[in-house]
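Hi support team,

I submitted a single chain yesterday and got back a structure, but I'm not sure I'm reading the token output correctly. Could someone confirm the output below corresponds to the sequence I sent? I've pasted both exactly as they appear in my results page.

Thanks,
R.
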Amino acid sequence: MIIETSCLKQYLLQHYLSKIYIIIETEMLFLQENNRIILKNLKKNQFIKITKIILNNDSELNKIIQLYQKQEIFFKKKIIIVIFLGKSLTLKQKLFFKNIKNILDQNTICIFHYPNLIFNTICKNFFQKYISKIGLIINNNKNNINNLYTWINRKIKKYKIYFSLCVIKNFLILYNYNLNKINNSLKILSLIYFNSNITNVILKKYYNFFEPKKAYHWINAIVHKKKNIALHILNKLKREKYTIEKLIYYYKNFIYVLLNIKTNQINEKNYNFRNICNYPIQYNFLNSLANHNSLIDIYQAFKILKNIEFLTIKNKTKTIWIYLKILSIIFN
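Hi R., thanks for writing in. Yes, this is the structure output for that exact sequence:
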């Protein structure tokens, strides 16, 4: 049977333990959530001993069989967690799953993680044919919003803050359904507004204060000529799936101010850091950057920005991040 995260907890309460659980999930937080729910249920049934292995290639499949056969002195019941890193279901893996019933026993539960698997129709049909009768497959439909609500409601309860359904909807939209950013924001909100009701006003205030600051740190590192730090911050923003449009917006503000300083239209008296973002960037560092770089360098940055805006329309995300790296180190 194939089910989704939103149904998993209820399903486990109503059914006997499966010998195999296969979690196919590219969203890491959902994968961790599914794993947590399964382990919690297994713990109630005295499955405590956990062994985890990561398989980089199919030559290591025998390790699973060895773990099944291994006798534990202190634990009769055990859990094996196997993480497959590949993007495809290989012929050797298919052969392994076809014959897995030959090694199953009542005291061993195996949880398979597929964090990178492309779950196409062929994979789905295979698992339904060979695993459904002996195990459970967990895979989320990307369009099922209930999985997000289930996940976020558990997090809200854990962090002891309160959201209405309306605020949750706005929260998801505001962060473009990015689970990592939502999770990080919930942690911070729980520290600031512990045991409080989060309204749309509070949410907007928090968002407007914290989100621009991430881009500010990137711009500020560029202004201070800290190229390695600028690249490090940019890579972190990429991992967090930070909005590219916002990075372009703040960089464009920065480059216009730099051009105006270079052409003597902005000086220390009429400089306003809010023309870049809401956080202070010192004029003397901008002035130093303008003095050490030519107009050609600045116009080159403008040209790259134009290319990025064109690539945004074409949705060429990988190339955009490469150009953003160039903008991080373009000035001397």
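A quick pointer for reading it: The beta strands are 2-3, 20-24, 49-55, 78-84, 108-114, 135-139, 162-163, 197-198. Let us know if anything else looks off.

Best,
Support desk
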